[in-house]
Amino acid sequence: xxxxxxxxxxxxxxxxxxxxxxxxxxxxxxxxxxxxxxxxxxxxxxxxxxxxxxxxxxxxxxxxxxxxxxxxxxxxxxxxxxxxxxxxxxxxxxxxxxxxxxxxxxxxxxxxxxxxxxxxxxxxxxxxxxxxxxxxxxxxxxxxxxxxxxxxxxxxxxxxxxxxxxxxxxxxxxxxxxxxxxxxxxxxxxxxxxxxxxxxxxxxxxxxxxxxxxxxxxxxxxxxxxxxxxxxxxxxxxxxxxxxxxxxxxxxxxxxxxxxxxxxxxxxxxxxxxxxxxxxxxxxxxxxxxxxxxxxxxxxxxxxxxxxxxxxxxxxxxxxxxxxxxxxxxxxxxxxxxxxxxxxxxxxxxxxxxxxxxxxxxxxxxxxxxxxxxxxxxxxxxxxxxxxxxxxxxxxxxxxxxxxxxxxxxxxxxxxxxxxxxxxxxxxxxxxxxxxxxxxxxxxxxxxxxxxxxxxxxxxxxxxxxxxxxxxxxxxxxxxxxxxxxxxxxxxxxxxxxxxxxxxxxxxxxxxxxxxxxxxxxxxxxxxxxxxxxxxxxxxxxxxxxxxxxxxxxxxxxxxxxxxxxxxxxxxxxxxxxxxxxxxxxxxxxxxxxxxxxxxxxxxxxxxxxxxxxxxxxxxxxxxxxxxxxxxxxxxxxxxxxxxxxxxxxxxxxxxxxxxxxxxxxxxxxxxxxxxxxxxxxxxxxxxxxxxxxx
Length: 695
What we know:
By secondary structure, this protein is α/β, with parallel strands linked by helices. It is built from 28 helices and 26 strands.
């Protein structure tokens, strides 16, 4: 039993036990390991005292039941006392239910009589004028039935001391009664619950923020060391399990707070903003006016006014009681918000949808979507992401609509992006608050994607640079590191070397020891190319790539990273070494926005897009060189892709490689067509991105 609790105690203190070694484990060893674990759990459960939880259908009581069951590994020895047995049974499946009203002494005696002597009691009931009488009757009946120990849920110490607002009188009377009865006990005096001012009730901000990005609250500027209900419940469970922990000997009082004093207009607004496309604002307002707007009767208004006054001006003290009792720190506000992330999302959001059309601009339209619908449709292996930055891909974006099936409707647009997970399916290995790079549906304030199409990225990194790496950077990394590996001394040609993927290709080729020839289409990009490390920069509008290669690199080209097509492709092929390789990453000269399509003039090669790139074909050239239409090669089938991706992001975070991001800023899903046009016109230097969120 001691060993079993020791493991549990370490978990609560934040230590993760090392999993048993599974590799090469003999079946008999596994059988014995599982038998021993089961025996330890049984012994631990048997040595824990029976516990009766009153108020088990309420917010704190139900959390206490869950905490006890979790700690014990089963519902053995846990009883719930409720007036509505059916409701309690539905909430706590497998837990033994005692049916009795707190004001029915006979029913209480019968209920407690069915529990083994020496039981422990959690004392709580809803706030009401009868609270003192109800809890008092409960305590007397339990004491008469042989209760050995009680944990009383009270209210914040400051409220009790100042005797203003709320049911402070009832709490003081019941605390005094426990002492009078001589019943060993502990009193939990929690500060304001986090969920009171966030999710529900008349103090909650989540409701107003569902329909707007701002609201007012009397605690906007008032620091309060509010606490997570789960921490209160865990403290109660540890004390009620006192036979295992050595705690809970009686006569103890605990002021329970969160780890920090929090102002709603500061820390809470920041935490909620992480989950939303636009920052939220919580501004201060008068407490009396705030309460009056809720339509409460005058007596309730007077009581609440004093209660709010104490909370707003005297409840900033922080204690370490949660750690003292449970062995771990209290949960932070950020933990609380992330664990309940869906509550804080707006009711609707904008996304860009498309239909078959001759151009991206003609196809795209902004649509309003229901957040609840996306949450309802979220599959077990999916995540819902708040999109921060989306990548702009002129070719992929254009072809997603120009080559769409005639009957296609509501095409989700945008190839990739970086964002924050706000909801995750049961099988997804992500949690709310995780920043990820992802594939699919980037032109949307929220997007639902398969978890396998995501990868975690550094929360402190530049989201635009991380977006550039996801497709544009990874394409270059796999193409030049796996499909056509570059080695020291190679001559590598990179067309559009200041483009989204070309800028990565230059750096990767240089890192491998190659000499790089890079083409640009304007004088403004020459300096950018040199800063990337290009050895020979060529403006193809003023110089011939074929002539430069023939004159300055007579030995030929080893590898070309080619995404323009036309004359540039022809020049590369004409100067390719035997066994040289041309990696086709696109052919922008053939995209629909061009007035005419120049021919490449390569013997034996047809249309680059239709005959090589889209089918992913490899074409043998007359001199023995190859045109490679599938630059990913076998990276997917061999499983090497994740290693390249992880290395790329590690190098990006370490500054070993940089993402060149275009300086023209496009914001909001409505500006996606303009961003695509900007890229197709060749006005970008580096990756064009769309800032979907305002932060």
